[in-house]
Amino acid sequence: MSKLLIEGATVVTLNRDNAVYSPGDIILEDERLVYVGPSQRRLAWQPDRVISGQGKIALPGFINTHTHAAMTLFRSYADDLALKPWLEEKIWPLETKLTPEAVYWGTMLACLEMLEAGVTAFADMYFYSEETVRAVAESGLRADVAPGLIGVAPQAEQALVQAVDFVKRIQASAGGRIRARLGPHAPYTCPPSYLKEVVSAARELGCGIHIHLAETKREVEELKAQTGHSPVELLHEILGEVGPVPVLAAHCVHLSNEDVRLLAEDGVGVAHNPGSNLKLASGLAPLADLITAGVKVGLGTDGAASNNNLDVLEEMRLATLLAKLATGDPTAVPAATALRLATLSGAEALGLGEEIGSLEAGKQADVILLNEEQAHLFPRHDVISRIVYAARSADVDTVIVAGEVLLENGRPVKLDREKILAEAQRQAEKLLG
Ligand SMILES: [Zn+2]
Question: Which of 76, 103, 160, 326 could disulfide-pair with 131, CB 3.0 to 4.6 Å?
Answer without folding.
Answer: 103
